[in-house]
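Let us work through a complete example step by step.
Step 1: write down the sequence.
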Amino acid sequence: MQSEVRRTVFLSAGIYAALFVAHIIAAANDADILFRIIATVITLQTFFLGGTFLFFLVDSSRTARGEAFRIGSFISLPLSIGLGWAYAGMQWNPMILICPFIAAGAHLALRYSLQSKSVI
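Step 2: predict the structure and record it as tokens.
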């Protein structure tokens, strides 16, 4: 893995972790609107993680952006299972299986769009 891609993965992981902690704090303090905003950002980051990696690699090579997108797409799948678990109220529910399909579909659509524009 290229160093700039590794940096992007760690930076995104830090942002994701900070958002996760912030949503727990918002929930514990009954800050419902803040909790919902943070949960929405976490959901979007989970479903479009490969795309969010590209924000940090605007001036990088196409190879680096492609590698980052693939890694983000892969990491998005287990995160989306956890997201489905959270949305299902931490109980078994088909949502747990639906979320990875949403993430995969989002990444496929984004990949098609970005490849047609020669971004990745």
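Step 3: interpret the result. Residues 3-116 form one domain.
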